[in-house]
Amino acid sequence: MPYVLRRLLLFVPTLLGITFLSFALLQLAPGGPAELALAGSGGEGQVDAEALTRFRRAYLLDQPLWKQYLHYLGPFDLSPEGHAWFGGSGAHPYGGLLAGDLKNEIHRPHVRVVDELLRRLRVTVPLAFCALLLGYLVALPLGILAAVRERTFVDRASVVFVFLLYCLPTFCAGLLLQLAFGATGLGWLPVIGLAGEGASFGQVLSHAVLPVLCLSYGSFAYLSRQMRAGLVEALASDFVRTARAKGLPEHLVVGKHALRNALLPVATLFASVFPALIGGSVIVETIFDLPGVGRYAYEGLEQRDYFVVMATTTLSGVMTCLGILVSDLLTAALDPRIRHG
After folding, report:
1. CA diameter of the chain
2. Where are the domains of the chain?
3. Which of 71, 89, 145, 162 is the most exposed place for a label (fewest CB within 10 A)?
4. How confident is the model at residue 17, as a pLDDT?
5. Could you say which of 2.30.110.10, 1.10.3720.10, 3.40.50.300, 2.170.270.10 is the CATH number of the domain covering 114-334?
């Protein structure tokens, strides 16, 4: 428990660093949300100067970078309607990330970022979890089979198979799946969008099959080769040779003695695989027209909506930190010799 508490406390400076770097990089990018919001169809040259000034003042875009960042971070609102200590009217004294306020979208001021983020998480998290589960269910047995059949045809064939999948770009795989299983091919599965309200479980499942496959196939090579390498090393260790010398059956030697140690490197990969599936699903959600977090981040970046990009980046940082913590705890559970102190 003390270790967990210390790691949770370390999350604070880590996330502060992530948010500051993200905010600074957004400021360095050309263009700005004010020009995109007010330009309309006539281009930036048609923007009214007075309206642009009002827009920038309302969102503190005319203030120094440090003040904009502190306004986003909170817990004090530094806008003209913010806390009286900082020259505001006092109508809205508190706000920002530390106050649990992720602001409203710049281009849709009536939409709260936190509400939209939660709505899109209900799409992305189930898909990412299913993709992670499928990746482990396929990759671990494949890695175990390659390890116990080391340097055989099965081992070499598995290497070729997983690395061919790994080299296939995500957008290409998504389009091929749509062509193969959509209306232009076999017609077995829907290829666009999600099942609507009141849809049956079968309809929901049919809409999720292709996105989950597209999300998970890239992890097959990574996870299976880590599983193979860990098991090959464990099978060559002294305690495994001792178990074999005692006459134990091979399935007990592999399953009871070697496999637990071989799972250590695979468990640590959870820290990077699951957050990457949630934050890195931009291509998949775009191809299959899914209103998820990855597509939300892309839309926010395209429109230079600082609050959307900051919210999705912060979420990705939180998921990564939690993934690292879970990986450390899984490692300690699998190997009693490891104690975090």
Report:
1. 86
2. 114-334
3. 89
4. 86
5. 1.10.3720.10
Are 233 and 262 in contact by the 8 Å Cβ rule? The answer is yes
- Full DSSP string of 193-262: S---TT--HHHHHHHHHHHHHHHHTHHHHHHHHHHHHHHHHHHTSHHHHHHHHTT--HHHIIIIIIHHHH
The answer to whether 323 touches 308, Cβ cutoff 8 Å, is: no
DSSP 305-340: -HHHHHHHHHHHHHHHHHHHHHHHHHHHHH-TT---
What b/e sequence results for 99-128 when a residue is b if at least 16 CB atoms lie within 10 Å of its CB, and e otherwise?
Answer: eebbbbbbeeeeebbeebbeebbebbbebb
What pLDDT score was predicted for residue 44? 46
State residue 48's pLDDT score: 67
Give the C-alpha separation, 164 to 329, whole Å.
33
What is the pLDDT, as a whole number, of residue 36? 64
Q: pLDDT, tens digit, for every residue of 105-117?
A: 877 888 888 888 8
